[in-house]
Amino acid sequence: MGKKLVLFTVVFLSLSVVSAARAGGLEDGAAAYTKGDYAKAWSELKPLAERGDPEAQWYLGVMSHDGQGTPRNYAEAAKWFQKAVEQGYAKAEFNLGVMYRRGLGVPRDGAEAVRLYRKAAEQGYLDAQYNIGVMCAEGQGIGEDLVQAYMWFSLVAASGDATAKKNREIIAARMTPSQIAEAQRLAKEWKPKGKE
């Protein structure tokens, strides 16, 4: 039996730095979230989310998913993520993809997870690139595509991710030299479609 892919997938993004250029409720809400004051974070972010701010919508999705400042509610999390997805917000595309992959608050749907991961991955979002690499390698949600898996793992490995590099090597053992060359060409030519 050959080597197995390291099949963990990136599950959910941890919250970190907020853009210093954003002021007011978003900055205050993000700071409250970081401090663990989820009630304040929710009250600061919800009005912004309701007015259509995709980052605030994403925060409410994370908080609904994790039960922070509000009861845990996967359907509510999916609703907030979907609003941000409609604006092309990569973090929300990734998180909603995870929810579809696991069937949390939405029907389990591997094809929809792949579609959402791809939208975020095409913006250069590394966690989505990793997850779509796993799904292409395993044929989850789409048919097995080792060339695409190798390409996505190569992009993540270029950031220094050792697990993506290992997965790329495992996949390479199952590929022909021409498939590897094609995957390397695709990775070299790849450019993000846009940034969040």
Q: What's a concise summary of this model?
A:
With 196 residues, this protein is mostly helical. Helix content is 63%, strand content 0%.
Structure description:
There is one protein chain. The chain is an all-alpha fold and 196 residues long. The chain has a domain at 117-196. 63% of the residues lie in helices and 0% in strands. The chain has 10 helices and no strands. The protein has helices at residues 25-35, 38-50, 54-66, 74-85, 90-102, 110-121, 126-138, 146-157, 162-172, 177-189. The longest helix has 13 residues, at 38-50. The model is unreliable at 14-22 (pLDDT under 50).
Give the key terms:
single chain; 196 residues; mainly alpha; 10 helices
Content of β-strand: under 5%
If helices are DSSP runs of H or I spanning 4 or more residues, what is the number of helices? 10
Q: Let me know the average pLDDT.
A: 89
Radius of gyration: 18 Å
Number of strands: 0
**Outline type:** elongated
- What is the share of helical residues? 55-70%
Distance between the termini: 42 Å
State the low-pLDDT regions, or none. Answer: 14-22
Q: Biggest β-sheet: count, sense, barrel?
A: none
What series of H and E elements makes up the topology? HHHHHHHHHH
